[in-house]
Amino acid sequence: MNILLIGGNGFVGKALIKEFKKYNVKVSYLSRSQNYSISKDEATWIHGDIFDIENIITNEKYDIAIHLIGTIKNKKLYSKLNTESVAQTIKLCQKQNINKLVYFSANGGFKQYIESKRNGEKLVVNSKLDYLIVRPGLMYGKDRPTSYFNILPIKFFSKLGIPFFKNVHPLPVEKVAESVVKNILRNTDSTIIEIKDMK
Question: How many angstroms separate the CA atoms of 141 and 148, rounded?
Answer without folding.
Answer: 7
